[in-house]
Amino acid sequence: MGTDNQTWVREFILLGLSSGWDTQVSLFVLFSITYLVTVLGNFLIVLLIGLDSRLHTPMYFFLTNLSVVDVSYATSIVPQMLVHLLAEHKAIPHVSCAAQLFFSLGLGGIEFVLLAVMAYDRYVAVCDPLRYSVIMHTGLCSGLAIASWVSGSINSLMQTAITFQLPMCTNKFIDHISCELLAVVRLACVDTSSNEIAIMVSSIILLMTPFCLVLLSYVQIVSTILKIQSTEGRKKAFQTCASHVTVVVLCYGMAIVTYIQPRSGPSVLQEKLISLFYAILTPMLNPMIYSLRNKEVKGAWQKLLRKLSGFTSKLARLTSRENQTWMSEFILLGLSSCWETQISLFILFLAMYLVTVLANFLLLLLIRLDSRLNTPMYFFLSVLSLVDICYSNSTVPQMLVHFLSAQKSIPFSSCVLQLHVSLALGGSEFFLLGAMAYDRYVAVCHPLYYTAIMRGGLCLGLAAGCLVAGFINSLMETIITFRLPLCHNVINHFTCETLAVIRLACVDISFNMLMVAISGFLVIVLPCSLVLFSYGHIVAAVLRIRSTQGRSKAFGTCASHLTVVCMCFGATLFTYLGPRSAFSVEEEKMVALFYAVVAPMLNPMIYSLRNKDVIAAFWKVVEKFRDKE
Fold first, then answer.
1. Are the C-beta atoms of 407 and 490 separated by less than 8 Å?
2. Rounded-to-integer distance, Cα 501 and Cα 498, Å
C-alpha cells in the first residue's frame, strides 16, 4: 500500500530492553517462567470458581472476568516479547502492531472498569448485606461485566485509530518492549498535542473515573464498618475487601504513573520499567493476592485436590508433619492491647500511610512531567519512591486491619510472603542508597564525565542489581528462618519480622543469628561503606573548591541524600546488625515502626522541600493546570 506523503511503514522495529545477548537470554528465562505462572495461576482461579458451587457468587463472577482479562493481556504482549528476546531482527508487522496496541489497551481499560465494578460489589455486600442477592442479581452482574468489556474495547478502538493516522515519516524504531501507545505516538513527525489530549481524556475516563468510584465505594465501606460493634464483624468485613484493595493499589498506581500525563522521550526508560511491571507482574500477582488469604478459594482448592485420587497420598504426605511444628497461622501481638489506643494508632498510621503513598506518587509524577528532572539522580529517586510505596504496602495495610480486629492472626503463607517482600524491599533500598551515593560522587568529583559515566544502561543496571540483590538476600533469609521448628505461634511484633519469628523457635538459634549478622553485613554495612567512601571523596573534592557559592552548591546536591542515609542506615543498624534477646523487644518495635512507617513518608519530603528543581517542577505543573482551566 502506498500513500502520497510516504508515511506508510510496513513494519516496526522494537528496541526492547537490552541489546546484550546474555541479558536477553536471562530475561527470556525469567519472563518465560513469569508468563507460565501467570497463565497457570489465572487458569486455576477460573477452574476453581467453575467447579465449586460455593464460589458461584457475584464477587467470584467478576474475579473470573478479571482472570480472563489478565491472561489475555499477558498473552497479547509476552509471547511476542519472548520471541524478540531470542531473535536478531526484532520486527513486528504494521497490522500486528496495531492489533497488539488495540488488544493491550482494550484489555487494560476493561480491567480498570472491572475493578470499579468489583468495588461496587463490595460496597453492596458490606453496606447493604440483606439485599445483596436482590441487588447483585445475575442480570445486573452480566450487564456490568459486558459494559466493562464494551467500554474498554470502544476506547481502545478510538485510541488505536487516532494513533495510526499519524504520519510516521518512515521512522519505524519503537523504543519499547511492545507497541505501546505513548511509544508509537513518539514516532510521529507532526505535532501530537491532539493525541496527548485524547490520551489525557481517555485516562480520565478509564482511569480516574473508575478510581474515583472505587474511592467513593470504600469511603462508604469504611464508614459502615466503623459502625459495626462486633469486632468479629469488623474483621470479616475488612477481610472481604482486603484482596480487592491490594489489587486496586497495584493496578491503578502503576497505570496512573504511566498514562495520566503522557510526555515525549526523556523518561522512556522509566516508562519501560513501569509498563513491564504492569504487563508482566500484575497479571501474575492478581490470582495470588485473591487466593493466599481467601479461605473460600483455599477450601475450593483443597476440595479439588481431594477429588483427584492420584494426588491424595501426596497431599497427605505434604500436610502431615511428624514433629507437629507446622503452624497454620500466627498471632501478632502488635503495639497495644488497649482498644482506645488501637483506634488512635489506626487513625494516625492511616493518615501517615495516605501521606506516604500520595507524597511518593507526586514525586514520581513530577519526575515524569518535568524534563529537567530526567537525570540519573532523579531516576534513582523514582526507584526509591516505588520501593517506599511497595514497602509500606507490604506492612501497613495489614497492621491497620489488625488495629480494628480482636484476633490479630495472619496465615502462615501470608507471614512468609510478608517477611520475604518487606525484607527484600528493605535490602533493595540500602543498595539503592549506595548507588545514589556513587551517583553523587561522580557528579561532584567528575562533573565533566558525568553524562558519559552515568549513562542509561549503567543506571538501569545498578537499579536492577539493587532490586535483585535485595530479593536474593531476602529469599535466603526467609528459607532459613521458616525451616526452624516453631514451638508456638504468638509473634511479639506488629509484623512478621525476622528476629521476631526466629524467637518462636524451640531449638538453638545461634546459626540463624549468625546468618542475620552476615546478611546485615552484606546488605547494610557494605552499602554503608560505599556511602562513606563516596562522601569521603565528595568532601575532599568540595573542600578544594575555592568559590563559596560552588561549595554551597556542591553540598546542596548531596544534603537530601545524606539526610536519608543517616535516617535509614542509622535505624536499621540499630535494629538488625546486633540482634539481641527479648529484653529489647519493645525498643525493636519502635525502631522498626519508625523505619516501616515514618521513613517512607519522610523520604519524598526530604528530597523535595529544599530541592529547587522539584519545587520548580511542582509550580510548573500547577501553572499548566491553571492554564488549562
1. no
2. 5
Rounded Cα distance, 84 and 273, in Å: 17
Write 55-58 long-range contacts (CB < 8 A, 24+): 55/296, 55/297, 55/300, 58/121, 58/136, 58/141
Q: What is the mean pLDDT of the chain?
A: 80
Res 146: pLDDT: 92
Q: What is the DSSP letter of 491?
A: E
Dihedral (Cα; 42, 47, 53, 56), 10-degree rounding: 40
Q: What is the pLDDT of residues 400-437, one digit of tens each?
A: 888 887 788 888 888 888 889 988 998 898 899 999 88
Which segments in the chain show pLDDT lower than 70? 1-9, 169-171, 254-267, 292-293, 304-327, 571-584, 610, 624-629
Phi, psi of 283 (to 5 degrees): -60, -25
Q: What is the pLDDT of residues 301-342, one digit of tens each?
A: 777 666 654 433 443 343 344 334 456 788 888 888 788 888
Q: What are phi and psi of 113, to 5 degrees?
A: -65, -40
Residue 6 gets the label, from left (phi > 0), alpha (psi -120 to 50) or beta, of: left
Is 610 strand, coil or helix? coil
Of 172, 162, 175, nearest in space to 10 by CA: 172
